[in-house]
Amino acid sequence: MDRYPPIADHGLVGDLQTVALVSSKGVLDWFAAPRFDSPSVFASLLDHDRGGYFRLAAEGDDVTYHQLYYPDTAVLVTRFMSADGVGELMDWMPPNTSRLPTDRHTMIRAVRAVRGTVRFTLDCRPRFDYGRALHELDFDGDRATFHSPDLSLHLQSTFPLERAGEDVQGTMTLTHGQVAGVVMTVCARSGSAPAQPTEESLTEELWSTVNFWQSWLSTTHYKGRWQNSVRRSAIVLKLLTYAPTGAPIAAATMGLPEQVGGERNWDYRFTWVRDASLSVRALLDLGFAEEASAFTTWITDRMRERAHLEGERLQVMYRVDGDPQLDEEILEHLEGYRGSYPVRAGNAAMDQLQLDIYGEALYAVCEARELDLVQAGYHNWLGTASVLDWLADNWDRPDEGIWETRGGRKDFTYSRVMTWVAFDRGIKIAEHFSRPADLGLWRHTRDNVLRQIMDRGWNAAEGALVQHYEGEVLDASLLLIPRVGMLAPRDPAWLSTLDAMDRKLVSDSLVYRYDPTASPDGLRGSEGTFSLCTFLYVDALARAGRLRQARYAFEKMLTYANHVGLFAEEIGRTGEQLGNFPQAFTHLSLIMAACTLDEALDAQRRP
Questions:
Q1: Do residues 489 and 544 make contact, with C-beta atoms less than 8 angstroms apart?
Q2: In degrees to the nearest 10, what's the CA dihedral of 256, 258, 260, 266?
Q3: What is the average per-residue pLDDT within 424-429?
């Protein structure tokens, strides 16, 4: 077993409240319960010896591996091939469709021999609370229960298990057509064990899960190019969204490094206002109005709950239930992925000042106008209007910016761009629904923000809008400018900025977010190209009419997806995926770029 497989060497399964990663060799090496942001049960991806894992795989010196998804589902298939036979492992989590939070989560692992004879081995070693909590094992032949202080893990199989200290192992040899399986259920310590699985019950659960995903995906409106990539990205966004509230997390994992061996290792299992707000347009483009509606309700609730309090009206990020407490701690006992230390749980950036979030929040609300969500919530609108009134007096301040740098506050241009968006969209909503608003104040502020951006954010030497007012560094976050409409896609100032980015930030169609050596961000080490930014680059190129360049960049970027179509946060110098995995922001920007480029290509073909 590899101590640390490549980050990209994984598939993702989930039940709409939590997720698990399974490597291409059948190792479950990341799983947190009962929620995405809960302490881990398996985390060997962050410490092979202390984190815990659950391996179920074929044995043999000549075994080769291949992993894929059952089409249009979140059912993961890992195939083991040898001279003696071919076996398959199917991993899935039955979706929880009740929309009620639960502490009970089930993962099913079923194996079968497709050809010949296959010997499978099982090795289950949970390590609760990031490996800090001890557990006790109750064992009885084909069932085992691991008890930690807070949780119980029930393991029930259709084949005999063996006790190995406080862990469990097992072996089975299957011949052509034979099936076996194991059901893992995590619940509160007081929870009861589920029924013993049978081949019939495993089959029923499998097809129920397949039908759920294929039925959900069949409702999409998207019929354009790159269907497989777009549909897989939609499933990723669905898997990373907490169904009880509609809040998506930024990524499935914590602590995976932006540079192997470095310190840029963050916990991404929370809801960023920015990332989640931009997902609304992507969901609407695909026809998933229910998911867009759920998040819009969530974000307007966040604005309303602080509308009349002192201080900032929104926080950068929240837990999926809206809890603003994300205190950061360093898990000193974990060595980190391939020695990438420290491993952080929680995120101290929650306290940063990032003024762009108001623009993204209003962007989401405005995009959802077509669902009549704003019209249905008058009191939510009053909270939103109060936020804009407050922002009119508080927008002109240095902040930490979109990239959450820890090198001090600056007048970041992107933060001003999104401030412009906040007032522009607020005006549109108020006019569209005839809602009470201080439109004179909002228009005056919007226009002042734009003048300031063009006066102070423009760098004549670069011929471009730059990262912040005091520097000359370019920043790929500004690629959103034509999408949000602050400048037209073919405005000369914008095309000049795009050309400057081509020169300074683009490397063989992949895009760096900025140059940390030229704009110190308070952290040691370097980073790869930012996958989000590459897809935003494609979107901007398509809007600018540079379709050949846009299509080349898009299709080249798709080749950097992993074997099952997933993306992490970054691409390293040798093509490896880096950072937390998979990342929602990357997949939503893929959808955005695909929709924009597909529409532009169709328009080009029309007479």
A1: yes
A2: -40
A3: 95
